[in-house]
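A quick aside before the break. I want you to see a complete sequence-to-structure record at least once, exactly as it would be stored in a machine-readable document. Don't worry about memorizing anything.
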Amino acid sequence: DEIQYFNKKQQQSLLEFMENGSLTLIASTTENPFFYVYNALLSRSSVFEFKSVPAEEIRPAVLRALEIMKSRTPLPLTWEPEVPALVAQGCGGDVRKSINAVELLCEAAVPKDGTLLLTEADAKALSQRSAMRYDRGGDAMYDAASALHKSIRGSDPDAALHYLARFLEAGDLITPCRRLLCAASEDVGLAYPQAITIVKSCVDTAMQLGLPEAQLPLAQAAILLATAPKSNSVCTGIMSAWADVKAGRGGDVPRELQNVHADSAGLEREQGYKYPHNYGHHWVRQQYLPDAIKNARYYHYGDNKTEQAAKSYWEKIKGPQ
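That is the input. The structure line, written in tokens, reads:
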């Protein structure tokens, strides 16, 4: 019924669309569509991701932009040899930014001897704040955080410093601090137990100093973690224990470990707890896990010097398990 309000041409177009039932929409976003676009739309769409363009591929676009500006400027326009490469490198893989940079350079150029000369110094000044892609809270941030953590885990101090520098350039201290603190327990752990204390001190110092001085304690922490011996026994141990808890495997706390003060009046029972400090080497054999999982093993000693020393110590005291 509503079709009567359209003119004849509009009515014809609408009828054709209703008959064909075909409509193509193209949309773009700088956010991750899998987080920010409704699933109902995603299920009916094809998603294409546009990657950053390498500097060597941007350079031809910069040269074309320079030639166009050359034809528009009132004075002859020239540039020093490294200007195109500097502009291409400083735009963070964004062709549009590189062209905008060319326009800014031309507008800021000072006439000299009847010509406009674009200098390397001006190009460097324009790129002083890198145009690298960094969307706080978005994919680029999480990718950089993941790369920082994995570089530390892979014992590559150079890569760790590179990804840390990306956060410093973006002015983000919180994200690398969190990654460094996490890696100290997750990937170094008991192989170098003092690492987390040192990293915490570095993080606290960085937060007190602020940028640019914060770069020093954070770099110290990154290098320390990347070059430290590695162990993930802490990570695998707590994950295994938590998995049992989530799956409902457990049971009542053994009577020996219960809080006797929680017994109802008149129902007090003998606890039977053995106080380890009353025994040799401050240890006595008794059950600590609930009956249902009394033989569970979550922690496994890592193959590093520190954990192997602890393993050897307790094997001598506890004997065969």
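Two observations worth writing down. The beta strands are 77-79, 111-112, 115-118. The CA atoms of residues 21 and 52 lie 36 Å apart. We'll return to this after the break.
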